Amino acid sequence: MRQAMIKYPLTVAALALAALMPPAEAAALQENGDPLDSARWADMQKAVLAGAPALFDPRVLVIAPSTAEDPMQVPVTVDARALANVQEVIVFADFNPIVQILRFFPEATGAYLGFRVKLQQSTPVRAAVRTADGIWHVGGTWVNTVGGGCTAPSAAAGSPEWQQRLNEVSGRQWSEGPQTGRLRLRIVHPMDTGLVAGTPAFYLEEINFTNAAGKRLMRLQTYEPVAENPVFTLNRGEIAGPVEASGRDNNGNAFRARIAP
């Protein structure tokens, strides 16, 4: 049975925004009537967005497979570069036991991030994007999966060598070809959810990307549902030169790496 939706009147800002959009997109810009028809949307709005009104906005793209064969490594890309003045992006999954997946703050990069997640069951995967005017713009997609991704043990749990490689970092920048402007970072980490008996939660908490002058490009907060040995893909845009990535996990283990063009 579909859950009753909390209804909010259209804000002045929303009406002004719709007036500037093509008719088809303006029709999809709304503050009620979840387009993914999830029974948990009202709960998500309350828990993740603190009950703030949200606009379902087709310019917030969440790209993921409609059917994921491996629930422990589901590829997701969030692209909100069509929105101006993005302050924060929250990614979450309605039916995961741990709802929040990550948050990122694109301070000097485009509002774009690729990553992989663990899903416990079929669920909407959503991105809520807060712009400078305080409005949350929401996009998402359903991902169907056999499930169990959050309660299955990590591969590292069965390897005696994982501690020697913990927080080992590799990365690459593309300066030519179709991938120009992309930066990719991989970190060796088990990303244990804490939902496996006898295995406590152990996951990366924060990652910062800065340029050679020390200016922060993006701040990233990650939670337990991010996939093991996470890989993040950013769009650094016109920013040139080496990028430094640094961060830590919830046990205080830190890493730092320099990614050259």
Task: Describe the protein.
With 261 residues, the protein is mostly beta strands. The chain has one domain (13-259): SoxY domain (Immunoglobulin-like). 10% of the residues lie in helices and 37% in strands. It contains four helices and 16 strands. The strands form two sheets. Strands 1, 3, 5, 6, 8, 9, 12, 13, 15 and 16 form a ten-stranded mixed β-sheet that branches. A six-stranded antiparallel β-sheet has the order 2-4-7-14-11-10, with no helix packed on it. The protein is globular and about 50 Å long. Mean pLDDT is 88; it is low at 1-10.
List the helices and strands and how they pair.
Layout: H1 12-19, H2 23-28, H3 41-48, E1 54-56, E2 61-63, E3 67-68, E4 74-79, E5 86-93, E6 100-105, E7 112-117, E8 123-131, E9 136-145, H4 162-165, E10 169-173, E11 182-187, E12 204-211, E13 216-222, E14 231-235, E15 243-249, E16 254-259
Parallel strand pairs: 1-9, 3-9
Antiparallel strand pairs: 2-4, 4-7, 5-6, 5-8, 6-13, 7-14, 8-9, 10-11, 11-14, 12-13, 12-15, 15-16
Primary descriptors:
4 helices, single chain, mainly beta, globular, ten-stranded mixed beta sheet, six-stranded antiparallel beta sheet, Immunoglobulin-like, disordered N terminus, 261 residues
